[in-house]
Design brief:
binds adenosine-5'-diphosphate; about 45% helix; binds zinc ion; seven-stranded parallel beta sheet; alpha/beta; Rossmann fold; 4 domains
């Protein structure tokens, strides 16, 4: 329909000056009629890979998506850009669905979002009579039975190859492992597809992990760094989400709960609040996430450890989709390790999968404990090598030297044994540190030869040694995670000092997390890191004014604020202070439609009084 070049479309419709990374290559390949598999991390910019070709090629582009919320969001975003887009799914109101069908029949749609069920349940016959620009298969990992989101309907999409010869197909996913990749290509019958694999490095994500000591205070410190921002707090159980949210609420933090146990209406209300609010903290189990497009999530905290690096990566990936700095803080403790192993031992998963699940859990534990660059360690889990340390994770900013803890490990294991293998780590550490608490005295543990043998070392140090021994399997936790016992076989070489134990010195100096966005304490700010530019006070005030304008504008249309403009765009406007429509058009994220729709109002909001 449009003879425009992809770059022209990118600039005029989307308002972006250039493509990112592999986008351009993928876009050109699809425009030329080739099939493609695009692997990009969350926030990598997958949507443009099919949206631009959709506008460059003649006919309607069909986008197959498993999630209604995601479809509606994309359609609303495209309409804001002046693109004719619509969705067909089980929750469309019948009137709108009829209008969409009519628009489709007169070739009046650039993009049509559909669920696989809808497509295969009757729509596909109608499409055969139309000119189709392309098929985009979003969240394509759903086709793979190895993935956690397997959708049997996705398998049937293989028929598109035969029924629409010559129409390019582009499959997109953020799940990149080799097996899933091969599975997608085979299941969608697209052996000739070119695969585009982007780096999974997200330089704007600041990773940190900390032993869970005082989770409430640790979380409060994180929230204090992100006062006017939205974030996600992941918890390991439904009960814990309720608890944490109640506490946050009591402290005046606007917290929302989401977990699979909520009634449907409650879930929807929670999602609505999260999408519409300027600053909301979502406290959720892993049930929350897929289909959340909010670009300005500034932090993701894990109060409990995820059970694999894949899950961890996916969850932290929900932060900073807009490319602005965002923080991911993982709190982990010995209970997490014990609980995850316990679940695994009772897992219903097929026997053949258990070793792989166990390996992923152990890798996750290693990631939490590592003293090396976290970004590098995480990417290595996905077979990606990052040349050199990232320079902006907690370990890069405040290195923790490796300490030889062979002798302390011996002492700790002995202490567990001498106290009868009936106590928890806290008690054992108290004995080692010579703390004659009531419980220690009552059990006569202050009379043990080991009592106070490690008094010169901190409790944090001893907890580190304890975690290392639990991670190694020399110590196992009892039911209820209240007691520690030895695994005699594994513990023996440690007890004899035959196996070297290294731990990473717990740091006291480093802040309980990181401080992105130029807030890094003096001395910790890494050289050469693309932190957000320092913003002056005046710009801050202006940004707040723009934000207020955006909220009002969004509410009037019943849309989430980020669909009007992203924070990145508002920041750029606050910095550049454009005085004319022409100057405003130069700002990233201001395309022709938005300029026309909001330009005047924005300029008015910019000038005071
Ligand atoms: P994904 O689907 O891969 O998670 P999105 O398509 O939602 O990522 O894009 C993530 C963010 O990056 C969006 O806010 C989008 O507007 C922005 N973005 C994508 N491509 C570009 C680009 N070439 N220039 C500027 N911003 C972009
Ligand atoms: Zn690093």
């Amino acid at each position: 329909m449009s003879p425009d070049s992809p770059t022209t479309i990118l600039r005029s419709i989307f308002g972006f000056p250039q493509f990112r990374g592999l986008q351009e290559e993928a876009v050109r390949h699809v425009i030329a009629g080739g099939d493609a598999l695009v692997l990009m991390p969350t926030g990598g910019g997958k949507s443009l890979c099919y949206q631009v070709p959709a506008l460059c090629r003649r006919g309607t582009a069909i986008v197959i998506s498993p999630l209604i919320a995601l479809m509606d969001d994309q359609v609303a975003a495209l309409r804001q850009l002046g693109v004719s887009a619509a969705a067909l799914h089980s929750e469309c109101d019948p009137m709108a669905a009829r209008e969409t069908a009519a628009a489709l029949a007169r070739d009046g749609l650039d993009l049509l979002y559909v669920s696989p069920e809808r497509l295969l349940g009757g729509l596909i016959e109608r499409l055969e009579a139309r000119r189709i620009a392309l098929f985009a298969i979003d969240e394509a990992h759903c086709v793979s039975q190895w993935g956690h989101d397997f959708r049997p309907e996705y398998r049937a999409l293989a028929c598109l190859a035969a029924r629409f010869p010559g129409v390019p197909r582009i499959a997109l996913t953020a799940t990149a492992d080799q097996r899933t990749r091969a599975d997608i290509l085979a299941s969608l019958a697209m052996p000739e597809a070119r695969t585009f694999v982007a780096s999974f490095h997200r330089p704007n994500l600041f990773l940190a992990a900390r032993p869970k000591e005082r989770p409430r205070a640790q979380l409060a410190a994180l929230l204090a760094r992100h006062q006017d921002a939205s974030g996600i707090v992941y918890c390991g159980s439904r009960a814990r989400t309720e608890q944490v949210a109640a506490r946050l609420g009591a402290d005046g933090v606007p917290a929302v709960v989401f977990h699979a146990g909520l009634a449907r209406a409650e879930k929807e209300a929670a999602l609505r609040r999260f999408r519409a609010g300027e600053a909301v903290v979502m406290v959720a189990t892993i049930a929350f996430g897929m289909g959340i497009d909010r670009p300005d999530v500034r932090f993701v905290a894990h109060l409990d450890m995820p059970d694999s690096p894949e899950a961890y990566y996916q969850q932290i990936g929900r932060a900073g989709r807009d490319g602005e700095p965002a923080e991911a803080l993982l709190l982990y403790g010995i209970e997490d390790i014990a609980r995850a192993r316990h679940f695994l031992a009772r897992s219903q998963a097929p026997q053949s999968q258990i070793p792989a699940l166990r390996a992923r859990l152990e890798t996750m534990i290693g990631l939490a404990e590592t003293g090396s660059c976290r970004t590098q360690t995480l990417l290595a889990c996905f077979d990606e090598r990052l040349e050199g340390p990232c320079g902006h994770c907690d370990n890069c900013l405040a290195p923790r030297p490796a300490l030889d803890a062979t002798v302390p490990a011996q002492q700790l294991l002995s202490a567990v044994y001498r106290t009868g293998q009936r106590f928890g780590l806290r008690h054992v550490v108290a004995v080692l540190r010579g703390e004659a608490s009531e419980a220690v005295r009552r059990h006569g543990h202050d009379r043990l030869a080991l009592f106070a043998i490690g008094r010169e070392r901190s409790a944090e140090f001893w907890h580190s040694v304890g975690r290392a021994m639990i991670a190694a399997g020399a110590l196992v936790m009892g039911e209820g995670y209240a007691t520690l016992a030895l695994d005699a076989g594994v513990a023996r070489p440690y007890l004899r000092g035959e196996r070297i134990v290294r731990i990473h010195a717990p740091t006291q100096a480093a802040p309980a997390g990181l401080a992105p966005a130029g807030l890094a304490p003096a001395g910790l700010a890494p050289a050469g890191l693309a932190l957000a530019p320092a913003r002056s006070k005046g710009e801050g005030a202006l940004f707040e004014r723009l934000r207020a304008w955006r909220k009002q504008t969004a509410d009037a249309q019943n849309l989430p604020p980020y669909l009007i403009f992203h924070d990145v765009t508002l920041h750029e406007i606050a910095t550049l202070k454009p005085a004319t429509l022409a100057a405003l058009a130069q700002v990233r994220g201001v395309g022709a439609a938005k300029l026309q729709r909001y330009g005047k109002a924005l300029l008015a909001a910019l000038s005071p009084g």
